[in-house]
Automatic annotation (TrEMBL):
Name of the protein: Kinase-like protein
Binding locations of ATP: 88
Lineage: Eukaryota, Fungi, Dikarya, Basidiomycota, Agaricomycotina
InterPro entries reported for this sequence: Kinase-like_dom_sf (IPR011009), Prot_kinase_dom (IPR000719), Protein_kinase_ATP_BS (IPR017441)
Record field: compositional bias (Polar residues): 579-609, 881-891
Ranges of biased composition (kind: Acidic residues): 825-846, 894-905
Keyword Amino-acid biosynthesis on entry: no
Species, as recorded: Lentinus tigrinus ALCF2SS1-6
Length: 941
């Protein structure tokens, strides 16, 4: 068989070379893999009687969320050592699209060549725009898109993203109290600012900044911006930010160039900026608040008055939304509230906001809305009192500036005294996190182009392939069925699979960069899968990991793309003894998405068995009918032939030579050459790896971004960026940190004793007011929280795997320890009885957004008490949660309701929302669902 393949390859070198190229379906610009073929499989787990759905190499595990157009699943990448990824599954068309189409011209067929103008507004257009935007992005504080599986012959598009195991930022309790301490909030803010800065540089306006779109990494040290569903690209902004010389090809992607979205209302109402909800009839309304400091009254009037002409919608809307988010994190409530959507817009436009007396979980005093020297225009921070409260109110007043032209810029935010307050050296931080520094590390066009080839979709082979698989499905031949996995594994053991398809760059090799500890991982042929399998977590493990997820367990490794941004200079120590911890970075060929049969005896097999569609047999010995053979030849020029013939190509040679290298040799080779060889060795990340190696300080910068303190760099000077973003750092993440999360809270771990908590709080409060009140408040909260907590069970999602003594966790007041997912709920459908903090179900999608709260700081805004007719429908079974204004995802829920997967196998649905028991504890809010105004959809992108 192999000989036949080889001979046919000699006959058609040209075609085969192009076939080879077609296998390397990388986007030439940014390393996002574009896959044009999708293969569905399913596998039964004999033990748990579950069926695992498999799309290409991704094994779907749990549903972690539902977005505007589809659902997000946790999946494992079987060719990357079962790394966790998030896969967003979206339909090209939803019900609305079909109705629109019917109304317009039912006879007009819609093809990929349909003019853009006809596609505008369609679901597919929105998805494509989201993809086009995400493809541009590669930043440590922005969720990264890794692969798009977009098979024109199927109805769905799969967006494979890095998985953020920490979930959304939870920011308030059911009783509207903040969940995060002030310093935690500040660290989150620093991460968001850096991410936003990058987005704006790229010409992207996010338009939906809110807590629910800020996701934690699994170790809860880093926050990343997610959800670009309503984002917009502004060419003008990109030009202004980057300059003409830096404009790239993808900046002129037609799908991005449509800026009409900007004029539409999109986002979450409570977070919308005044210029978005502008209404000319408000022009005569001058909003002013009576300030106790008469000198600042005039300033406040200027500050809160909206401009008289319709302002342009610019990136400043993100800064406003960031201000609302900051306010929410600090106070557990949002600054603008009202009963209806219309009302909230008016309030946003015309009313000032209030400041509660205390902020954060630690209840630091704010000093009130009006303080001397606060909110001065122009800014003069020398006159600003050096108290946390005064500084944060000053920042808020600049973020929540109704006049977008006077609103603070991101660059100014970065330099604001509150943001840099706890930094050892603000100047260093600013220097290290400067966007210009980061951009220098981006790969050049030449680098990416030398590493990747673009591919066009091959209609003929694809259609042939379809026919082939259809024929097979119609008449299944029992004896020809693919052997069970076990047999695959046995094949592995006899060497059907060889190393070349996976270049072993051990994770720790890449993270530590310390050659003295390094030991290359040697694999016997065929043992790779076995090892991976042995390490592969069971479903139960997975769920358990998900619960502890979030604290960076070794088994629950979330995929951190940045972990692969390494110089690969030398192997490093494996922290996990007795198990293979190496991150197997696939070669280009292993990233091939077309499933290929393996030539027997060939040592250049690049496709693991797990990639085969059911219709293929890896041994290539399956008897076929003549028709099938012809169809097969038609469909791929016979892939084996084309594949084998690719040995003529330089790429093949490069890969083969790399394949023959030992891991450490590969690692040693990588940084030396930045062109094809190392590019092939590690796929799209390689050029970046070498880029990273150019700047050791980058690591420090990114650590500073999240962790604040240069002390960390001193503690672990050799640790590089990859370890910062790796969830495998179980060694240095202490329990309290994991409990509290928030970007390096380890610096100031929560005191385990209430008394020391009191002391530490007092020390931070003493300078600004009566110490007793704040300290007492914290102590009361601590005690109350401990009293409330019935018992922390093994289900505690934030429990550290190694230290889970109940007592230890009980002493922690961290609500974060109790807000995470409840994995058990998804296992058997039951709820955890250990839920300690009841969260408002409307809360977790930030959507939180539009919920009139009982606790308002008082003042001008409308106050809706919790007992306002909220119980009316409490007995309705809690069919819906109270949310006067649906979140972006909720708004599309109706559209998505019909989007049930017809080809979807049964999957456990894991609810990210608070469990029912939590909802039951808050009947008033559920009952408010009846008041939710559905008549006016607000998101109209
Ligand atoms: N990369 C990821 N890792 C982990 N969870 C994710 C990831 N991306 C999305 N999610 C989760 O999946 C859910 C849906 O995400 P998506 O961004 O598609 O929804 P959405 O449109 O943002 O919804 P909404 O706007 O209402 O928040 C969210 O709750 C989010 O927390």
């Amino acid at each position: 068989m192999a000989n036949a393949v080889a001979s046919s390859s000699r006959d058609r070198p040209a075609r085969n070379r192009s076939s080879m190229h077609s296998l390397l379906q990388h986007d030439p610009h940014d390393g996002v893999v574009i896959t044009k073929e999708v293969f569905h499989r399913s596998r039964s787990e004999s033990v748990k009687h579950d069926t695992i759905r498999i799309i290409n190499q991704y094994e779907f595990k749990l549903r972690v969320g539902k977005g505007q157009h589809g659902e997000v699943y946790l999946a494992e990448d079987s060719i990357r050592n079962y790394m966790q990824v998030a896969v967003k599954v979206v339909r090209r068309k939803n019900k609305t699209d079909r109705l629109k189409k019917l109304r317009r011209n039912p006879d007009l067929p819609r093809t990929p060549h349909t003019p853009l103008v006809d596609q505008l507004g369609s679901t597919e257009h929105k998805i494509r725009k989201e993809i086009a935007i995400m493809k541009k992005l590669n930043h440590p504080h922005v969720v990264r898109l890794l692969e798009v599986i977009d098979d024109p012959l199927t109805d769905k598009i799969y967006m494979v993203m890095e998985y953020l195991g920490g979930g959304e930022i939870k920011w308030r309790t059911k009783s509207d109290n903040p969940l995060l301490r002030v310093d935690q909030t500040r660290r989150i803010c620093r991460d968001v600012i850096l991410g936003l800065e990058y987005l704006h540089y790229q010409g992207i306006i996010h338009r939906d900044i809110k807590p629910a779109n800020l996701l934690w990494t699994a170790d809860r040290r880093t926050v990343k911006i997610s959800d670009f569903g309503v984002s917009t690209f502004s060419y003008a902004q990109r030009l202004a930010a980057a300059g003409k010389g830096n404009i790239k090809d993808d900046d002129t992607d037609p799908i991005l160039m449509d800026e009409s979205d900007l004029s539409k209302t999109a986002g979450t109402p409570m977070f919308l900026a005044p210029e978005i909800v502008y209404d000319a009839s408000d022009d005569d309304i001058v909003v002013s608040q009576t300030s106790p400091h008469s000198s600042s009254t005039l300033q406040l009037q200027t500050q809160t008055q909206a401009p008289r002409q319709r302002p342009q919608v610019t990136k400043a809307i993100d800064i406003w939304a960031f201000g609302v988010t900051l306010y929410g994190l600090l106070f557990g409530i949002l600054p603008f509230n009202a009963k209806s959507e219309y009302e909230i817009y008016r309030v946003i436009r015309t009313q000032d906001w209030e400041v509660p007396e205390a902020m954060g979980l630690d209840q630091l005093p704010t000093g009130g809305r009006y303080q001397k020297g606060v909110g001065r225009r122009p800014a003069d921070y020398r006159l600003l009192p050096n108290t946390e409260g005064a500084q944060v109110v000053d920042l808020l007043s600049r973020l929540l500036e109704k006049n977008c032209e006077k609103r603070i810029t991101l660059d100014q935010v970065k330099r604001h005294p509150w943001i840099t307050r706890d930094l050892h050296s603000p100047e260093d931080w600013l220097h290290e996190t400067a966007l210009t520094r980061y951009l220098q590390l981006e790969p050049t066009h030449a680098e990416t182009n030398s590493a990747m080839s673009s591919v066009r979709f091959r209609w003929l082979p694809r259609i042939g392939n379809r026919i082939l698989s259809t024929l097979r499905n119609v008449k299944p031949q029992r004896s020809f069925r693919r052997p069970p996995r076990q047999q695959d594994d046995e094949k592995d053991n006899v060497g059907v699979h060889s190393e070349p398809h996976v270049v072993h760059l051990a994770r720790h090799q890449t993270t530590t960069g310390n050659p003295s500890h390094g030991r290359p991982h040697h694999h016997h042929h065929g043992s790779i899968r076995e090892k991976a399998k042995s390490r592969r977590p069971s479903r139960q493990d997975l769920l358990r990991n998900k619960s502890t997820n979030d604290i960076g367990t070794k088994s629950g490794k979330p995929f951190e793309p940045w972990a692969m941004w390494n110089n690969g200079s030398a192997p490093g120590p494996s922290k996990s003894k007795g198990t293979e911890t190496g991150l197997q970075v696939p070669s280009q060929q292993s990233r091939v998405t077309s499933p290929l049969p393996s030539p027997v005896g060939s040592s250049q097999v690049t496709t693991p068995v797990s990639e085969y569609p059911p219709s293929y047999s890896p041994d290539g010995e399956r008897p076929r009918s003549r028709v099938m053979r012809w169809v097969s030849i038609l469909s791929g020029g016979h892939r084996q032939a084309s594949y084998a013939s690719s040995s003529n190509s330089p790429m093949y040679e490069a890969n083969t030579s790399l394949a023959n290298l030992r891991p450490h040799q590969v690692a040693a080779t990588a940084p030396a050459s930045r062109d094809s060889v190392d590019a092939l060795s590690s796929g799209h990340v390689t050029s970046r790896q070498s880029s990273i190696s150019m700047s050791g300080k980058f690591t420090k910068a990114m650590r500073a971004a999240s962790w604040t303190a240069p002390e960390f760099a001193q503690v672990r000077p050799s640790e590089d960026l990859t370890s910062l973003y790796s969830a495998e750092r179980g060694d240095d993440v202490d329990e309290e940190t994991l409990m509290w999360g928030a970007g390096g809270i380890a610096q100031s771990p929560v005191p385990s004793q209430p008394n020391s908590a009191l002391l530490s709080t007092v020390s931070s409060v003493q300078s600004i007011g009566p110490p007793v009140s704040a300290a007492h408040a914290l102590r009361s909260r601590t005690e109350a929280a401990a009293a409330e907590a019935p018992e922390i069970s093994h289900q505690d999602p934030c429990a550290h795997p190694r230290h889970t003594p109940t007592a230890a966790r009980l002493r922690t007041t961290s609500p974060l320890a109790r807000v995470s997912y409840n994995p058990e709920e998804t296992i058997d459908g039951s709820e955890s009885e250990d839920e300690e903090v009841s969260y408002d179900s409307a809360d977790d999608d930030s959507n939180s957004s539009f919920r009139p709260r009982g606790r308002r700081p008082g003042g001008a805004n409308i106050i809706l008490n919790e007992d306002v007719d909220l119980d009316a429908s409490s007995g309705d079974g809690g069919s819906s949660t109270f949310d006067l204004q649906p979140s972006t995802s909720q708004r599309y829920q109706d559209e998505d309701d019909e989007s049930e997967d017809e080809d979807e196998v049964h999957l456990e649905v894991r609810t990210r929302r608070p469990s029912q028991s939590a909802a039951e504890m808050s009947p008033p809010r559920r009952s408010l669902s009846t008041h939710r105004p559905r008549e006016r959809p607000m998101i109209c992108t």
